[in-house]
Specification:
3 domains, flat, CRO Repressor, four-stranded antiparallel β-sheet, alpha+beta
Length: about 220
């Protein structure tokens, strides 16, 4: 049992580190070569966990080799168009200037029904509203609507809107998050001042965030009691 636990932990940590090296966060972002590598690695990793007679090195060495190849291929793909076409592929324009491209649909093996489904998932009710639809190399569909179908923005109305950026969670569950505080461009003195203004103690704050427009939002811990 101990051997099984140790082997599982080693393989798990190795796989997490290996996936981190690819720089991806979810399966939907994987290129074809990366997906193939993931499938092979999962098969290699499972063998020494299930079979204790298989040396651990039989998994560690192939996994590190595949990840090394993946990193090298990714690097070469950024330097060579030939390597990029072979291992990454290139985007396919399925709708160009409002017109469907049947040849590109056939090449991508996508039916018209599937295209319509993808367009609906992108918020397009009809093809008539689409200017471009591009099948990216990671399998995701990018949709650019026609100008007449775009939502009206403040810029269209000549409104002066202040950028708010993102909300930086500077306090979570009574604990100051230094990285978020630094990212917000605020200081500890500023934070202490805002906490005093709120009339709360640090331990009473469940969440405190500030955006780039200096809007402070606080949720008291007692709200969840």
């Amino acid at each position: 049992m101990t051997t099984c636990v140790v082997r599982t932990l080693i393989i798990y940590i190795l796989l997490v580190l290996a996936m981190r090296l690819t720089g991806k966060r979810q399966i939907g972002e994987l290129e074809i070569s990366e997906l193939v590598s993931t499938i092979i690695i999962s098969e290699i990793a499972s063998n020494p966990i299930a079979n204790h007679e298989t040396p651990l090195s039989f998994a560690v060495i192939p996994i590190m080799l595949i990840i090394s190849l993946e990193v090298i291929i990714s690097f070469l793909a950024t330097r060579s168009n030939i390597m990029k076409k072979i291992f990454v592929g290139s985007p396919s324009v399925l709708i160009r200037r409002g017109e469907i491209q049947p040849k590109e649909l056939a090449k991508a093996r996508i039916s018209l029904e599937e295209l319509l489904c993808q367009l609906r998932e992108n918020g397009m009710n009809t093809i008539e509203d689409v200017n471009y639809a591009i099948l990216e190399s990671d399998g995701m569909l990018s949709v650019i609507p026609k100008a007449s179908a775009k939502s009206v923005t403040p810029a269209d109305l000549a409104l002066d809107v202040k950028e708010v950026g993102i909300a930086h969670a500077v306090v979570i569950d009574g604990v100051i998050k230094k990285e978020a505080l630094d990212g917000s461009g605020k200081t500890r003195a500023w934070l202490d001042g805002e906490i005093r203004k709120s009339g709360l103690n640090l331990k009473d704050i469940f969440l405190m965030s500030v955006d780039d427009a200096n809007h402070v939002y606080i949720i008291k811990r007692k709200s969840f009691s």
